[in-house]
Amino acid sequence: MFKTIALSLLISTPLLHADHHGEKKEAPKTQEEKWIPLFNGKDLTHWTPKFAGSDLGVNYKDTFVVKDGLLTIDYSKWEKFNGEFGHLFYKTPYSHYKIRATYRFIGKQVNGGPGWAKRNNGFMLHCQDPKTITKDQDFPNSIEVQFLGGLGKGERGTLNICTPGTHLHWDGKLTKKHVINTGGPTTHGDEWVTVEVEVRGDKFKHLAKGQVVCEYDKTQLDDGTPLTSGYISIQAETAPIQFKSIELLPLKE
């Protein structure tokens, strides 16, 4: 009887811990992460396209579309690519956050697309304000987190870094390389892939399949100006791709 009562008290009593004064306090509860969907699964609300050669807001050849609830970069209306690189900008700039996406590459690259752009997309983070992008500008100043698909054989890891108009510190030293190979995992075929990027001002961390791929910091513009915040955009670089979800978790500074 005594054992039964003692067990019942143990189960029903809140977990307590002692502070440095010996007083009993209830253990803190872990707060659930509240991710914000940036894509509503229906349309491009809160997103604005910008293509090289076109004005801000022009969705050139209806490239950015929603199909079957998926945000899709669609080249079915293109005959040939002539340098019209595109980006789709989210409405809000951010500084401290996590962003994750689930994507897959589909179909064939549009005719005329550069070889490096096969099965190639990505997040452009800490982007310049899209209103400041010139009409013929190919890429916004930003830190690009590349999404790369395998080409059927060999390694072609996702989550590489590109630096249009920017630099960063890699392994503790300033690098001016435009492309940095991070050694991320390779995925061949049209399999869904989930990736995540943690951004804390000028510090970045890439994750794929729950594993850290790389970390770097001191992101900056070419002239050395610290780059600690900016807009988020998705690319259209001649490779068809679909996004099942794009989510953001704001972090405290």
| CATH topology name | Jelly Rolls
How far the N terminus sits from the C terminus, by CA atoms, comes to 54 Å
Please report the number of helical segments. Answer: 1
CATH second-level architecture:
Sandwich
CATH class: Mainly Beta
Q: What structural class do you assign from the helix and strand content?
A: mainly beta
Question: Averaged pLDDT, please?
Answer: 90
Number of domains: 1
Main β sheet profile: 10 strands, antiparallel
User: Oligomer, anyone?
Assistant: single chain
Q: Spell out the helices and strands N to C.
A: HEEEEEEEEEEEEEEEEEEE
Q: What coarse outline follows from CA principal-axis ratios?
A: globular
Helix content: under 10%
CATH superfamily: Exo-inulinase, domain 1
The value of Rg in angstroms is 22 Å
How much of the sequence lies in strands comes to 35-45%
Low-pLDDT residue intervals, each spanning 5 or more residues: 1-22
Total strands: 19
Give a written overview of the molecule:
The chain has 253 residues and is mainly beta. The protein has a single domain (36-250), classed as Exo-inulinase, domain 1 (Jelly Rolls). The chain has one helix and 19 strands. A hairpin with a 2-residue loop joins strand 15 and strand 16 (203-208). The longest helix has 11 residues, at 2-12. The chain is globular. It starts with a helix and ends with a strand. The relative contact order is 0.22.
